[in-house]
Amino acid sequence: MKQKIIDLFQHVHGRAPAVVTRSPGRIEFIGNHTDYNGGTVLGASIDRDVWVAVAPRTDGQRVFYSDFSGEKTTLASDVTARQEGETSWINYPLGVLMALPVFNLKAPQGFDYVATSDLPTGAGLSSSAAIELASGLAFCALTDQHPDRETLVKVGKHAENHFVGVPCGILDQGVSGFGEKDHLVFIDCRGPHFDTVPLSEAANFWIFNTHTKHALVDGLYAARHRECMEAAKTLGVSLLVEATPEQVEAAKPMLSSDAFKRAKHVVEEIARVGQAVAVLKQGDLVAVGRLLTASHRSSQHLFGNSTPELDFLVDRLSTAPNVYGARLTGGGFGGAVMALTGPAFGIVQAEAVAAAYAEKFGARPDILRMRTGDGAALA
Ligand code: GLA
Question: Which of 50, 57, 268, 329 has its CB 3.0 to 4.6 Å from that of 130, i.e. a possible disulfide?
């Protein structure tokens, strides 16, 4: 991939890049909608990345190209307006450029830029966090600045929250930044504090991307965010992480039926993340798998962010031989299911699940086999 982006840069800009970076996609392992509630979450960085290459320009122009759009776009360095339509992918690097000064980092003025990727977009693997971190690293290296990982992660999240406009937590950027091959990233989102947990070599990841997306997905994500904050307020805490499952039960009469279910999901899911860390340390993938499927059931019945398509995949996968557990991964309301399997689960078994899905829903999900990979870095 490195040679590919160098060649592409040469082709598009007629010269060699000065800096090349990469940052991986992520799988949300367990901890659904816990991050913005101040909770804990486990994620895996995968071996598919967004790559960014840059070189300085002296005329103050910023010339963007990506093979997602296939077009060159030139913006003056004082352009701060959000891009619409074909060029809207530029909002990610542009958001990063706007976020850098917030963290006392300098944004480069003029540059040539190329992004490319072997990470499927729209598969719930967070290509957005990956392009934010790869861009942040590239812009900093271009101006000879070397922020620590935590700052880089916060720059990416700031871009997403304030420029792209999604009120996400720190999961996606945190895992893309702190990922490590053969490990999961553990985030205590209150600090935030980042750690890694070793993952047994027997653990295999499969992603089934349904390509379904609820038309209101952004609005629904924001609505869940709001419901959680309202529940926290009724419970008298600033974030749901501060409430225990018992406190939520006790507050049931004061909460609307939906607010109660959202809060119950969040506090129980945070407890599941803690249990997952403990059983992962014992290498007990069977117990880990049970927690993953329990997490899905909670999304399905309490948080209300699953869909019949995702439920169907989880039903099939969680009862298939050599599958430890399965759950929706990411925001929900469509998207992808991940399965944690043993090595004996192979493409034949995965295809059988996809065929059953196709028979019911008339479309085939994409099957992606994933390995863990390292976090954002200069290449
Ligand atoms: C999306 C967001 C994350 C997180 C998950 C749900 O992926 O970007 O911050 O909230 O949804 O756990």
Answer: 50
Same domain (yes/no): 152, 246:
no
Determine which one of 172, 195, 284, 311 is catalytic. 172
> Which spans in the chain are helix H?
2-13, 91-99, 127-142, 149-158, 171-178, 217-235, 245-250, 257-281, 285-298, 308-318, 347-361
Instruction: Note whether residue 376 is domain-resident.
Output: no
On whether residue 378 sits in a domain, the answer given is: no
Residue 93 in contact with ligand 1 by CB distance below 6 A: no
Q: Is the CB of 330 under 6 A from ligand 1?
A: yes
Based on the domain organization, do 297 and 364 belong to the same domain?
Answer: yes
Q: What spacing in Å lies between the alpha carbon of 112 and ligand 1's midpoint?
A: 31
| Best mutation site among 128, 171, 213, 241 for ligand 1 pocket (most ligand atoms within 8 Å of CB) | 171
pLDDT tens across the length of the chain (379 residues): 999 999 999 999 999 999 999 999 999 999 999 999 999 999 999 999 999 999 999 999 999 999 988 899 999 999 999 999 889 999 999 999 999 999 999 999 999 999 999 988 777 889 999 999 999 999 999 999 999 999 999 999 999 999 988 888 999 999 999 999 999 999 999 999 999 999 988 899 999 999 988 766 778 999 999 999 999 999 999 999 999 999 999 999 999 999 999 999 999 999 999 999 999 999 999 999 999 999 999 999 999 999 999 999 999 999 999 999 999 999 999 999 999 999 999 999 999 999 999 999 999 999 999 999 999 999 9
CATH at residue 353? 3.30.70.890
Q: How far is CA 38 from CA 22, 186, 225, in A?
A: 28, 13, 12
Concerning whether 144 is annotated as a catalytic residue, the answer is: no
Residue 169 Cβ < 6 Å to ligand 1? yes
User: What are 23's strand-pairing partners?
Assistant: 50
